[in-house]
Hints:
The complex is a heterotrimer of chains A (144), B (253) and C (54).
Chain A: H1 3-29, H2 31-34, E1 38-39, H3 40-44, E2 54-60, E3 73-79, E4 84-90, E5 102-109, E6 115-123, H4 131-143
Parallel strand pairs in A: 1-2, 4-6
Antiparallel strand pairs in A: 2-3, 2-5, 3-4, 5-6
Chain B: H1 6-16, H2 18-50, H3 64-91, H4 94-125, H5 134-155, H6 159-173, H7 176-186, H8 206-238, H9 243-252
Helix pairs in contact in B: 2-8, 3-4, 3-6, 3-8, 4-5, 4-6, 4-8, 5-6, 5-7
Chain C: H1 3-8, H2 13-50
Amino acid sequence: MKPHRxxxxxxxxxxxxxxxxxxxxxxxxxxENLMYFFSTTDxxxxxxxxxxxxxxxxxxxxxxxERPSEDLLVRFKLSDFSKEVTVEYSGILPxxxxxxxxxxxxxxxDNRGVFVAEEVLAxxxxxxxxxxxxxxxxxxxxxx
Amino acid sequence: MxxxxxxxxRFFHRTASPPHFYALANRFIPWLTVLFLLLLIxxxxxxxxxxxxxxxxxxxxxxxxxxxxxxWMSLFIYVLMAVMGGIALIWRMKLAEVMLISxxxxxxxxxxxxxxxxxxxxxxxxxxxxxxxARLTSELILLFLYLGVISLHxxxxxxxxxxxxVSILALVGVVNIPIIHYSVEWWNTLHQGPTVSKMDKPSIxxxxxxxxxxMAVAFKVYYAIxxxxxxxxxxxxxxxxxxxxxxxxEKTV
Amino acid sequence: MTLGSFLDMGGYAFYVWTSYGITTAVLLFxxxxxxxxxxxxxxxxxxxxKRPQR
Lengths: 144, 253, 54
């Protein structure tokens, strides 16, 4: 390789390393802000903001969904398999909302420690299969 | 001194010469078009008709057959553009400059498709058209990078200088690519994790996976065709006073 | 499967078909635009070549 080309190659290499490092540090610095939601453990440990809007993510605990009155109010528990948080929401739920489903809710904690949601989004998983396969996968798990 | 053997280097210089490349593109385009249709038709048939309904998402998941291949292409084309940018900067190769700038609108198109189809999929499934999570935001930045490349190239009159500026922008922007790819693992996002690229267990049923892979290859071939068409135009624009263009005009008129 | 149920996409017809429609439009545009522009350019260049003294 001719020397001036080698020089340009090295220059480009250095430029890429520099930008890569800068990006890494920037992302590290803003790591918290890049998290889309807090976990239920964060809330239990008091890491989530008080008296402010934030997003809470977790799985809807099986058997916890209840509709205490005639209107749209839904109450359910969210869990990250270690801590649970009760959520209340009144409004239209997305098609994927069901027990055992991952969801992200936006809202704030009230003085009872209940998360009052203004918006509920479903977070679907990365698995795709026909219903028959899903059923056959579920059976051995339920038999246990 | 060079570590590239002389015959290979000669082959590259010959292929990269504009008239030779132009003729080669003309020869390849019909074959690529046939290949594209051979992949696209079974891909669409498999994805829209043969593949079963998803256990959770019903038929809405069929958007995957364009959303995921388009998102893959948006990353793939950008990486290629950065490589072309490197070649253009180091070896000052004209064809690399042409390929770089010709790729940009196609990549922008795929990024736009990935964003719009994702939005149309997110509304019924997640319950929202858009969220500012790390995956969606970094993909939007990718669209701005593509548009930046296109407008920077358009703004500089001298095309060789324009190519140099665009190459640097393409190389700088390449840091965004691993951020997009790993965003769903580094941060918690509304967007789900990877389905196909994860190695441990299949996350997608084989009857749904085959059409997805067919569509992914079909989109790659589409890119090759669209790139050759755009590169032919860009070469003609740049070399409009060259002898080979004059010969070409005499032949056609 | 009937044509009706195919077009209905399990109730997600709007989302699925809009996605496919927009994709087709974008891909066709990116393929055809350079072809049309090249034809125009070739026509212009051919005109210029016929009258080189201008």
